[in-house]
Amino acid sequence: MSHTAHIRSHRKPRRSASTIAMRTGVAGGVLSTLAVAGASGAAHAAEPVTQTLELPTLTADLAAQVAQSADVTQQAAASYQLQAERDAAAAKAAKQAKADLAEAKKKAAEAKKKAEEAARKEAAERASRTAERATLSASADTGSSSTGAGSSTSTSTSTSTSTSTSTATGSAAAVVSFVQAQVGKAYVSGATGPSAYDCSGLVQAAFKQVGISLPRVSQAQSTAGTQVGLDNLQPGDILYWGGAGSAYHVGVYVGGGMFVGAQNSSTGVVQKPLSYDPPSGAVRVL
Question: What class, spelled out in words, does domain 121-284 have in CATH?
Fold first, then answer.
């Protein structure tokens, strides 16, 4: 046995692995605790920063709300303006419609007044023609009774004359020209020209221009030639109103659907369409 066997070594004893591990664990735990504490402290220290960072988010939301409110307000204003424009347009249209209605009523009233005046005038002319026809008829009856057989002789003579001159060139044109030249002259019962005529006086004077002697009264003139249909008229034909042999009015057909006649004291000698006073028949002496 060595003499140094019981002497304690001056060197530090080696630490065992378990001791080192334990100490290492303790140290790790301490470091972990410190780390947690540091993290906790850092977290507590960062709280004010986090709150400060949330402010812009709240501010952005508020700005969005303000913007949305502004949009709503603008839309409402636009809607009010549109409604106001519509109301103004409707008021203008209503005013225009009212004016148009008033104008239409005015025109309708004027048209009605003119129609009534025309109807009154036409009624007066018809009444005048009716009265004149009655007068002519009465005059014709008187003339027939006074002339008697002489009228029949004149009629037969006129008939033979018309046969001999029916193809005379220019005769119809001369008759038409004469009666048209008398248009505008006065009507006087019993007159035979040159400044005034009655119906049969005008016809007699017209045919006298071409050498044809016609009876003086309408009844006899209505049978003075060959009877012709109203759909086969020629210029120069004598038109009559009433029956053949009992006519109360006569005129001269001038062509183109027109006739010339001494109608009455209101109109005098006129040229009118056949539709103005449709005749009953016609005779041809040319």
Answer: alpha beta
